[in-house]
Write a structure and sequence with these properties.
Elements: E1 2-11, E2 14-24, E3 29-33, H1 40-47, E4 55-60, E5 63-64, E6 78-81, H2 93-98, H3 109-119, H4 136-150, E7 154-158, H5 166-178, E8 185-190, E9 202-207, E10 210-216
Parallel strand pairs: 3-8, 3-9, 6-7, 7-8
Antiparallel strand pairs: 1-2, 1-4, 4-5, 9-10
Helix pairs in contact: 3-4
Protein name: ATP-binding cassette domain-containing protein
Family: Belongs to the ABC transporter superfamily.
Organism: Ramlibacter cellulosilyticus
Length: 218
């Protein structure tokens, strides 16, 4: 579904990804594991087109993403949950969820919202609340919901369990667990595997922007 082949990416003239490769089969849950600064977020931002390639290739279902401008990538069925959540503070919860759906000509907003609220019913009662009034944990849920709304093919979840209370971490694990067998491809970046090892089909370790090892999850 998603493949990065020998990818090199620099930020402010510092090479962050140094020949990194990743191949994720359709319908699988893969953990991208590495310590802080290893390059996990850079991998996801590269897939979304936020960072340009120095070398290598990124494809989605065989389609070369270099030919797709960043603002059109969500419409390909990619849902992205950034580590910093990336919500628009002045928009409501529902408006934040709807944002990427508006760029798709194929998705019906009413149907996508119904799906999201079915998975995360706790968001229904706060759908008219502005994002700036939410707690950090609530904002994480909204960011996940936004990714789910548009991610019909691929979900990129960047450190979803980082900095959240244990109860919310458990809730996020439950939601991710529901995606198993749905046909959706999911890549989860993490600094450790405390929260999701049992959910994963495969673990890919990244260190200093390069591959370390790839192995089946226990």
């Amino acid at each position: 579904m998603i493949a990065l082949d020998d990818v090199r990416v620099a930020i402010q003239n510092v090479e962050v990804l140094r020949g990194f490769s990743l191949r994720v089969a359709p319908g699988t849950l893969v953990g991208l594991i590495g310590r802080n600064g290893a390059g996990k977020t850079t991998v996801m931002r590269t897939v979304m087109g936020h960072l340009p390639l120095l070398a290598g290739r990124v494809t989605l279902g065989g389609q070369d993403l270099a030919r797709v401008p960043p603002h059109r990538r969500a419409a390909l069925g990619i849902g992205y949950m950034p580590e910093d959540r990336g919500l628009v503070p002045e928009l409501t919860v529902e408006e934040n969820i709807a944002l990427p759906v508006w760029v798709s000509r194929e998705l019906v907003l009413r149907d996508r919202l119904a799906m999201v609220y079915g998975i995360l019913p706790e968001l229904l009662e706060m759908r008219d609340r502005k994002a700036l009034l939410l707690s950090g944990g609530q904002q994480k849920l909204v960011a996940l919901a936004r990714a789910l709304a548009v991610g019909t093919r691929l979900l990129l979840l960047d450190e979803p369990f980082e900095g959240v209370a244990p109860a919310l971490s458990q809730r996020l694990s439950e939601v991710v667990g529901q995606l198993r067998g749905s046909g959706l491809t999911v890549v989860i970046s993490q600094s450790d595997l405390n929260h999701s090892r049992r959910l994963l089909d495969e673990e890919v370790v990244i260190e200093r922007g390069a591959n370390v090892t790839t192995e089946a999850a226990a």
